[in-house]
Amino acid sequence: MRLYDNQLITSHLSQPEPKGKLRPKYLITGTELLLVEESAQAILSRAKTEGFSEHDSFNIEAKTDWNSIFSLCEGLSLFSDRRIISIQLPESSITASIGEKLIELSTLLHQDILLIIKLPKPTKALENSKWYKALFNDDTITVICVTPNRENLSTWVDRRAKNIGLKLELEAIHELCYHYEGNLLALSQMLNNLSLLFTDKLVTAINLKNILFDAAHFTPYHWIDALLLGKAKRSLHILQQLKKEEFEPIILIRTLQTELIQMIKMSSQLSQTDIRSIFDHFKIWQNRRNFYTEALKRLSFTQLSIALSSLAELEIQIKSDYSANIWSDLNDISLLICSKKPLHKTNLIIQ
């Protein structure tokens, strides 16, 4: 069974049996540490109510003493306490040696052992591995912990606020999402602080004006998505945060160049074939197609070529004069790509 982190309690742990029956194994996946740790804590809390009073945690690395883990499984007697074993697997690849140890562990598990395994980045290759198939089967619940995207973040904020008794008006929720997108830990801490400051009071955007600070966290791909959708204000906000985090501009340039080259190729085929066939040819995922559709509607082949040429000039500039105001130029290019007005070469040349 696969559940998202918010479903773990509502659809499983808080439910009566058989739906809410505690499983012997839980696999928690994802890199959003706040959600991973809260999911693990929810499982631990429920397990303790069922007699699992001992808890041992292990961070798996090359020098891990596996015998100490195995001994915990073998050392139980009639009068022993039931035990929870938490294992954090490495974010990098799982070596053959670790895989063999996990297979051995799978043979030692029994009803008085509850196993929680944290796996940051599951892949198809891992799911098809011998150790994965040996360890995880029908008696396992997989908990998926992903950072809410921009479209779902307001729902996450609203749900979390209600859980802690915090009342937020819609505009206040939007303000929180703007200032803390991509930084769930800081957002969660702010919600907790607000619940202490505004007990039994509706929190408005005006209340937040002098409290919030911009702690949003973005990647280059958030910037690309904003450009594809023509979201000028959002693209500038993302650049502002990336600059604050001292992100390398050359990485942004290269990332955008890759997207523009692909879009130029797609644009060149629009007069010859339908857009769905083009997306199929370039293997564009279904959840990405609306981004490219918006961009290809707005930007012509010539406009895309001009933007690509300007990025090349910007790359030359950054290599010859690192003190140049690259971020200002990136802002200009962002605004022009997002604009519905025709782009002209003279507008995009970096001075």
TrEMBL record:
Catalyzed chemical reaction(s): DNA(n) + a 2'-deoxyribonucleoside 5'-triphosphate = DNA(n+1) + diphosphate
This enzyme's EC code(s): 2.7.7.7
GO molecular function, one term: DNA binding
Domain DNA polymerase III delta N-terminal: 26-137
GO biological process: DNA-templated DNA replication
DNA polymerase III subunit delta C-terminal domain sequence ranges: 220-340
One cellular-component annotation, GO: DNA polymerase III complex
Keywords: DNA replication, DNA-directed DNA polymerase, Nucleotidyltransferase, Transferase
Annotated InterPro entries: DNA_pol3_clamp-load_cplx_C, DNA_pol3_delt_C, DNA_pol3_delta_N, DNA_polIII_delta, P-loop_NTPase
Keyword set includes Transferase: yes
Keyword Protein biosynthesis: no
PANTHER family per record: DNA POLYMERASE III SUBUNIT DELTA
Similarity-based family: Belongs to the DNA polymerase HolA subunit family.
Protein's recorded name: DNA polymerase III subunit delta
Phylogenetic classification of the source organism: Bacteria, Pseudomonadati, Pseudomonadota, Gammaproteobacteria, Enterobacterales
